Amino acid sequence: MEQLKGTGVALVTPFKADESIDWNALEKLINYVIDGGVNYVVSLGTTGETPTLSADEKLDLIKFTFEKVSKRVPVVIGVGDYSTRDVVKRLEKCPLDEAAAILSVAPYYSKPTQEGIFQHYKTIAAASPKPVILYNVPGRTGRNMTAETTLRLAHEVENIVAMKEASGDMMQCMQIIRDKPDNFLVISGDDALALGQLACGMDGVISVAANYFAEDFSSMVQAALLNDFPAARSMNNKMLEGFELMFSENNPAGIKAFLHHAGIIENVFRLPILPVTDELYSKIGAYLKKY
């Protein structure tokens, strides 16, 4: 799992004006983040607006990402749902031969008990042909996966190898880092908290911001992993206002505004996501001129 240390980027899904997938823009984005130094890419994460994609589009995105990445960096595929059975069925159909791992979000909406979350992941791990990265993001799922549940999965289920932790609870993060198995990775899912979490012992970040800040964000993470915190702080301070603007209204609306300013993608979404307000879009543009 050494290949999943450092910076992973949760790719956005670019759309054309007619809301079809913009394959040319996605290829441009993939090359941009790889050239910027990210360690791996994540396809079909929440940032990719996966709830609005059809099953066929998801399969096409997986195949396209493998083709355009062309083994330059590892690829992680998002495979998550609130139905355990549906995740297992999708694992049977997904072309995962070239994947380094799958990233599976905790079941959302249904708010299962901690035992329900444990059994959900245990079942997925048994069905998955690839290592499983847990993903705790209670702000989206409605249910926190506790440190106890995470550690139980890490110690008891062999095919579960890492955790993307996006609860924002630093005490919970530190408990997981302290008590995890030696070969289990803990990965930040909060760009704005990543520097502090790396200082606590996390192994990297699966980042939204690295879609735009590919080079500086990757350099910040690498500096922190090498315990060069003065350099890491300097780069983080440079991006800090950008993080605030990026997430002030919605993700991925914020990061798509950044990428549109950069000329990489169109500023197009599928409902219910809307572009950021004109006021925020202008603030982002002003910040990027300074940046």
Automatic annotation (TrEMBL):
Residues annotated as site: Part of a proton relay during catalysis: T46, Y109
Localization, UniProt: Cytoplasm
Protein keywords: Amino-acid biosynthesis, Cytoplasm, Diaminopimelate biosynthesis, Lyase, Lysine biosynthesis, Schiff base
EC number of the protein: 4.3.3.7
Catalytic residues identified in the record: Y135, K164
A single BP term in Gene Ontology: lysine biosynthetic process via diaminopimelate
Descriptive protein name: 4-hydroxy-tetrahydrodipicolinate synthase
